[in-house]
From TrEMBL:
The lineage of its organism: Eukaryota, Viridiplantae, Streptophyta, Embryophyta, Tracheophyta. GO terms for cellular component: plasma membrane. Pfam families: Aa_trans (PF01490). This is Amino acid transporter transmembrane domain-containing protein. It is a multi-pass membrane protein. Residues 1-25 are annotated as: Disordered. The keyword Transmembrane helix applies. Belongs to the amino acid/polyamine transporter 2 family. Amino acid/auxin permease (AAAP) (TC 2.A.18.2) subfamily. Coiled coil: none annotated. Residues 42-437 form the Amino acid transporter transmembrane domain.
Amino acid sequence: MSVQPSSSMETQAPGNYSPPKDGRSAQDQAIENWLPINASRNAKWWYSAFHNVTAMVGAGVLGLPYAMSELGWGAGVTVLVLSWIITLYTLWQMVEMHEMVPGRRFDRYHELGQYAFGEKLGLWIVVPQQLIVEVGVNIVYMVTGGNSLKKFHDTVCEDCKKIKLTYFIMIFASVHFVLSQLPNFNSISGVSLAAAVMSLSYSTIAWGASVDKGKMENVDYDLRATTTPGKVFGFLGALGTVAFAYAGHNVVLEIQATIPSTPEKPSKKPMWRGVVVAYIVVAVCYFPVSLVGYWAFGNAVDDDILITLSKPKWLIALANLMVVIHVIGSYQIYAMPVFDMIETVLVKRLRFPPGLTLRLIARTVYVAFTMFVAITFPFFDGLLSFFGGFAFAPTTYFLPCIMWLAIYKPKRFSLSWFTNWICIVLGVLLMVLAPIGGLRNIIVKANTYKFYQ
């Protein structure tokens, strides 16, 4: 993959571009400006807030009560709180490292990796993991969008003919064939804002309806599985589900790239303000849904809390519609860096001319691919666990810490050194253990699944 140096930090008025200072021709600069990530730098701090909320508070929040039923009260609360603290810390590191080099901005995750590990090694360490995360999220959100559309249809029209999940996923995908043509991050800001509002709304409905329904009779808080292997695999899978819920790091540098920056007013200040607001929203969404959902239903809760809640019908239907709107925005947030990578390769390496035709074909093929995989493997909770552990743990929990140690080189045995190594150890354990549970869940469900049902 051919990668050009990062774009220079603006030294003119915010939002304007300074002339290229890294030896690139005007043509190269024009291509750089055409790509989705670098196309616009006029975002405000609140763009950071709702982009991060949209990126993080997604389908994962609806699976957290199910994860609690696999973990139990003690381990469940501990994992949730630790994940919130660790991921906020690593997100702060990413924001700080965005423009650690004077006059330069790391607009993409892999550019920061290349600076930390070297041009070639950094590319191979970061890009595969980032692609797995972003493509994986898009596949899961295809499944989530289709499931929520189906649930909405079945709730408002119980007497209607049952329609296969496959068709609902295709309906959901049809929206993205259109929205994927929006050129860059700032152009999807309206979609992202609507998605962020929806995430807060349906999370509130999920825990509010659980409170209204009250604790089930004979509610059971024992672990969901009855056998020792089942409990172990369930525990591991739940770790992956929690990891999936904290996933915004994979697009944080790309979001920060949309904010103007000067030496006097670096982008990290408005970006961090937005991140703090976003994490407050994350806490308001995650903790009530997880704890109240598990309190109300115990180990009888479904892998999607809205499926467990069936009344009042109009409210559950509304919540499912909100989920659909939210994952539409989330899909676009995670797809944009993928579009940037695809278009970078096509234009810079394969020398295709940049323009509408290239964008139309490349992005349509990508949306069709994620739709096809989602239709083929719609195992919602298993997908959350597998992708959460396998890919989210490195890019969210410990890769920022490794880069921080490599770049800043804090004094050995200092607080920063200890903190980063603790995060690295916990993150590696999560990466190794969580996919095991998710993969087993997928295999178990695949035994009874008929393709394209």
